[in-house]
Amino acid sequence: xxxxxxxxxxxxxxxxxxxxxxxxxxxxxxxxxxxxxxxxxxxxxxxxxxxxxxxxxxxxxxxxxxxxxxxxxxxxxxxxxxxxxxxxxxxxxxxxxxxxxxxxxxxxxxxxxxxxxxxxxxxxxxxxxxxxxxxxxxxxxxxxxxxxxxxxxxxxxx
Length: 158
What we know:
The chain is mostly helical.
C-alpha cells in the first residue's frame, strides 16, 4: 500500500512527538538510576549492579534517538559519513542485545534467590556479578559486530 506524502508527514510528526518526551524522561530516569546506585554504597548489591549497567545501556539507546529521528525525516542522503552510520547501527544493536541480556541474567539471579536462597547467597557475589556484566557487554558487542560489515551505497544524483 502506498501512502501519500501528507500521510507519511503526519506519521513522521507523530513519531517525533512521541520520541521527544520518551527520550527526555528516559534520559532523566536512567541518569538518576545510575547516580543513585553509584552514590549510595548500600545500593551496590548484584541486583542494583545489573540495573545500573542496564541503565547505561538504555541511556546509550536514548542518546541515539535523535539520529533515528534524523533518519526518519531525512533518510537519504546520509550526511554523517560511513563511519557514523556503522557506529550508530553497531551501538544500537549492541545496547539492545545488552539490555536483553541484562534482563535475562537479572531474572536468573532473582530466580536463584527465590528457589535456592542459600546457594544464591554464596554463588552470587558482587565480584562475579561485575565479571558477568562485563561478559554481557562483550557478548553483546560480539553479537552486534556483524552489523558493521553490512551497508548500502547509493549513487549520488547529479
